[in-house]
């Protein structure tokens, strides 16, 4: 249930309304633009007009669609997320590049320098690593976040890093601009709720067997709990094919453009798992209409501590940036003609 | 890396060894039977004999298989988990039954009474619910856990309930006998690590597009972090078929029997999503060799707050218990002949 | 469109009606019980009452469901197919056993002897082999069919063999009782039409990524073209799991029982691809309610020219027959209580 | 097994060699460039040197790879197929456009005119339609092939149409330039063998759950039986996603470029099933490196007798041709820099 409020309500009146709703056993969360979302247990049997007599409620939207805040139906214009003067979505090319794992100060400095030189928007790097084996390297933790922040600031890049549990959110949000939810955590609802409480943009990766609707419902969790700044990321799905690590689903770009106003980016590194496929699938993503790319690169790809087989060199990254920009320009000019 | 220690070592000597390993940048975790597992970052380039000179280390097992503690290779006999005098695995029929969500004291008391009358081992019920929509009922929380505990104690049933985040583990472990990891959290590694620190049996559900190896690696996380009591649960995978909610994969029972010593149970409620399929697929599971079943039942299935379409009545449950027991006996007698 | 005719019509009147329908650009096919199916191009825009004035037409059934003849809705009782005094479907246990490929007279004689001794209904063996490599052994052809027929007759077994193209149907129907459509040919519509013209029972294997509806539509092809004797066979689907050759989907047994009146059997040999899984999955199939089994066995499984890794010995087959019969009895008795 | 022959052999000597091989129970097929392929039953136990003493045999290649003729390993340069002065593969943009089903002379004339005006290479249209329902329109047959041929000749376009069974191959090859194998028939081995006997280029569509290797093995069937002119076509795979008809797998373009020398084209109409997705996915295909496109268009898309929801207008096709050409140029120029 979404309640649109009278925009002239005083803060104290909103608080009183929230208190009243809690007494009615609902959990209200404030949204941008004088709205409340009722989350965690709206009784299906409550009729919308039970809310209309409450002081300050102007309109009640029952949830006919499964996702409301993320839907293009209720918000036809594409969302543009602003972060430190950079824009994500709405025709602006967003590219995050960097190593899978943060390994050292030198590695991140070199990566940031190359990313900036080739025109990337953000520097990525993992400090908390979701590894399928308990015996593998699990990341540098907070020390890694500091290294990432310093490298980003030095080269005027946004920073992007993954969080894996609710307790890490506040810590990471203090160091990093954009928080990432990994594919394996796309339906970690406790984590999604916690991310609703911060203001950082959230890069939400599609689970490897999540439908488009599952992905949008996960975005709705973050939004309904208070954070509207969600970026969706297609990163490949699991199919019967074993030649590639995953099957990159670029239909998702078209489908999500139709279903939601949120920005959509593509991760061709995980989506293919093969170094030589990253460039062609990056260009295919942009041609399909994606708002950006997330790419694993490393000063010395073969020595990368994780994901070496899908990590590209700085030079290869430079060529992708050049070609992706050319394709974006070509298509922009063509649509004008 | 697994280190087998001299069984005559004093506690203080083990502590000294652990300290030494931490200085070497490893994270040691104590295992049953005088073993240490080195988790979270064993350097691939360290040679096993670097550990052999350490005081008290008798044998070093580098990880050729991806999972070591869960593997049948290193532990050929089936594991039998004992909990309050009941046995799980190794030919004992384990059946957990109860509603999807804990809704009230009356509902749980009636469910426990029926479960016990028909010979179930455990009472299940969700207090923290992983719902795909943020607007849906998210469970009764701690109040629900108390209701569950009381009903279980009254009818001498083990209790089973899901935890969704690391911060819930300690709380839930105080109320509930068996903690469940849901399919969507099978690779929530932070949660798995936390579950390694308690002693309760863990019912680990297979993610809906997890391979057998993925599932065993998730079990290995819990075991390597200190808790050997893991029960695996097949609950259906996501395929192209839309007539059923999931495709129940009973090949998994045969495959896991071959790969691991851990008990394997089946959840035909989620595995089919259709009430009338629960009985035949329960019997098929037992015939395939499963160690038990997890079944959603409710005093009034059509009024269940969640999963109504796959929830069965007490009478239907009674018939399943009777027929499953008959099949188990028939097969046990046949194998003797 | 299905037309029910006046049962007192003379043959000549039916012929005249068919001629009239052909002039109207429809293709009528005679069905059991005074019915005509209009196949291959019924115009969606023709209204049913355009047929009601035709002489002899009593009822016109437009196709609301996608499959009509195969549907349980229009034919609630399970179909029992009779063939040389043996019955398939409706509670009778049908088991076909034999080698993947027919290799020699001796091999087939030994197989038939063992199959009969253990109580099988039919002898299976491939004469035309659908091999994924053009360089592999493609079967003995007609010579193989003769060997199969002789072995079946000697031991009073029905015979079952695969056809791969329309031109083989007539030839094979002269030798073999039951014709099989392989998974790769489930949507070979030219072949399905040709099989509609013979009277032999058809064992139709589910394609490895066919939905239940796809399978039923394929059955409908055979039935609409004149042959009502279709047996459906679940033989595993392709998923992301690579440990097994296929993922056997026993939900299909429950679903097809609900959707159709046709008999449903299971092939655990292809459905698992692993010899040690054939027995437990055979028993699981029977417990789930399947009408029978199709099993690959060989006098010397390790020397089988094809599918050796999933082929079982005569002794293993005997044990499956014994245990499957016990489970079927147990469940039959239980349902009486 | 592949035998390379002495290029100076007389025709009569080759015939004698073939006769000798047949007596040895092998089936030899002549290949381009003085080669023989031994198909249909090479005994695994025969050693290669058993052939070396035969008159005229210079080299014997046992099949270490599963596919030999299709492999890039044995033929590093991309194959360019020439047909009536047009070139397919090797950087030449091949585009086939036209309606799903051939419906009338007027429809095909209009389609051919538009296709030619916008720069297409070929006119497509179905005369034999593989329909999942026996009651649906199954195509105009030979009459349709004549209409297709006439329209193609009038506008100087190659023609492309599907064949569904071995018996149709000779007929269709007399009318149509390029013969198509549909996704459902990709492993119809009888059909593939028959297509090995003609010289027309074959457009081989990937089955909707075929792996890359399955597709290449199907191509190998056609090639080993004598026809080297195979064009591979990605047309979407079946996954759990139901929003789109299929999931278009553009990783396949990169993978097949690596594995084979054959041309690779993409069908975004079936690969998405949604009209508005055809343009962006066409451009994505070209950006990923595809050699061409196969697109369903119709003079009046909403009145198309089949596949209306994925069929585009002539204008939409014109815009795709323009943009695809621009992207191809942009990338060609970029690779020079």
In short:
The structure is a homotetramer of 337-residue chains. The first copy, chain A, is α/β, with parallel strands linked by helices and 337 residues long.
What do you see in this structure?
The structure is a homotetramer of 337-residue chains. Chain A is an alpha/beta fold and 337 residues long. Chain A folds into 2 domains: 2-61; 81-336, Aldolase class I (TIM Barrel, Alpha-Beta Barrel). Chain A is built from 11 helices and 14 strands. In chain A, strand 5 (81-83) and strand 6 form a beta hairpin. In chain A, helix 3 runs parallel beside helix 4 (142-154), helix 6 (189-195) packs across helix 7 and helix 10 (275-288) runs parallel beside helix 11. The longest helix of chain A has 23 residues, at 314-336. Chain A is globular. The mean pLDDT of chain A is 93. Chains A and B meet through strand 3, helix 5, helix 6 and helix 7 of A and strand 3, helix 5, helix 6 and helix 7 of B.
What attributes does this structure have?
14 strands, homotetramer, alpha/beta, eight-stranded parallel β-barrel
Strand content of chain A: 15-25%
Unreliable residue runs of chain A: none
Q: Give the biggest beta sheet of chain A.
A: 8 strands, parallel, barrel
The helix/strand order of chain A is: EHEEHEEEEHEHEHEHEHEHEHHEH
Domain unit count of chain A: 2
Element layout with pairings:
The structure is a homotetramer of 337-residue chains.
Chain A: E1 2-5, H1 11-23, E2 27-31, E3 35-39, H2 49-52, E4 57-61, E5 81-83, E6 86-88, E7 94-98, H3 105-117, E8 122-124, H4 142-154, E9 158-162, H5 166-175, E10 178-181, H6 189-195, E11 202-205, H7 212-224, E12 230-234, H8 251-259, E13 264-266, H9 268-272, H10 275-288, E14 292-296, H11 314-336
Parallel strand pairs in A: 7-8, 7-14, 8-9, 9-10, 10-11, 11-12, 12-13, 13-14
Antiparallel strand pairs in A: 1-3, 1-4, 2-3, 5-6
